[in-house]
Amino acid sequence: QQQQQQQPQETQEKQPQEQPPEEQDKVESAAKREKTAEQEETQQPAPLVEPVAAALPPAASESGPAAPTPKEQQQKAARAARHQQHDEALTLLAAGNFDSLLIAMRNELLPVLRQLLPLLAGGRPFVVFSQYLEPLVECAGELRPLAVNVRVTESWLRDYQVLPHRTHPMNNMTSCSGYLLSGTTRLLDS
Q: At what angle do helices 109-116 and 133-143 cross, to 10 degrees?
């Protein structure tokens, strides 16, 4: 009798319970998602770029870095010399007390002038050239407390042809001109 009672229980466990079709679809789709997630995890993506060692010639990749060529050595020496000159220029600039200042720029003169003018020693001249008048007029207004004899002048020169009973401007003249801002720094009380 016990065997007979166990057999119906076993058959009940083996038979899946009937579920509504909507829930069966949900279970099946969840199972499919789990399988695809597992497959994606096991697959490794293909490398986007081939390793560098594969692209190098066999001699270079096996023996390490190749000896620099004479041209590369010259370039390295020139680069080191440029860095040394740059460092020396920065040291001189930091020391200040320059004798004069000449600037030729197209735009944004005032910030540059504000940074470089304090590096001049007192009573030293400065000149700024620009193709346009407006930036120089703006700089002149800012420099009046820091400098004396601040002037803005035009650099265009008109040549005249002088002949007996005939004086007139030259027919062939260049149109290249600009404006100059000049002045002298004030002596600062120390």
A: 40
- Relative to beta strand 179-185, strand 166-169 is unpaired
Cross-strand partners of 98 = 120
Amino acid identity, position 4: Q
Q: What is the mean pLDDT of residues 31-45?
A: 64
Q: How many helices (H) and strands (E) does the chain have?
A: 7, 6
Sheet of strand 147-154, all strands in order from the earlier edge strand to the far edge: 101-104, 125-130, 179-185, 147-154
pLDDT at residue 104, rounded to an integer: 93
b/e for 4-33, b at 16 or more Cβ within 10 A? eeeeeeeeeeeeeeeeeeeeeeeeeeeeee
Q: What's the half-sphere exposure (Cβ side, CA atoms, 13 Å) at 50?
A: 4
